[in-house]
Write the structure tokens for this entry.
Amino acid sequence: MRNIIVFGHDPRMESVAGYFYHLGYDVYENPEEPVADACVITAPKLSEAEEDALCAYVTDDQILYHGLLSTASQQKLQEKGVTCHPYLQLETLVTENAQLTAQGILSIAGRDAVLLESHCLVLGYGHCGKAIADALAKAGAHVDVAVRRKELKPKIEQQAYGYRNLAQWDHYTYDKYSYVFNTIPAMVLDAGHLQWFSPSILIYDIASSPGGTDFAYCKAHGIRADIYLGIPGKLYPKEAGTVIASGIYEHALATETPSD
């Protein structure tokens, strides 16, 4: 059976190493010497120097599970014949990371006010949007979901959430909302849309940088809006590391044993 190499310096990787160690694998953390027949697992994001070291280290007899990598590094690995799997695209990781993100953003929002009986608007209904809407509903909030895709309406309404069509923004009222949670990585909360909300609205943007909110407008008009990136790794590194390890194990190693 393959050895496990954990590559990169990130708190989540301690859990990744521990997960495989407790399953009986030989685990090497950032080794300098070659390790044959190995599955290499990188941190979700590497520095430029770490990417260079990774490209120099891995060989074509190893399998690489990686997080974010530059196009240049991916090209180098391809030229070396390394079998690469971008683990952040694995469905189980996406789903479970969304759960951690929802847990984290609600814990942050709960510091500002009481979610129970509050009116919340969730922008987007992908993995994170759905997880946040579900968590808000469990917390006792009234939840509306705004999306571009009309075909999502039945799924949203099936959960008893209010449906809002982003293409028909002016068909609805917005001053009832206490919280807005944006998951759409595009400018959806621009000045034209923000003026519809109460000045006391609290906006939590978790979309990829630079987010989907006009933060300059919010600052100028006294609206509290913040962006929160990488919640699983920042708030729950142990749990996020376990999610990475278990997802990779299920994808590549579950049919094998350490002694094979």
The radius of gyration is 21 Å. Residues 104 and 235 are 7 Å apart (CA to CA). The domain at 3-89+237-253 is CATH 3.40.50.720 (Rossmann fold).
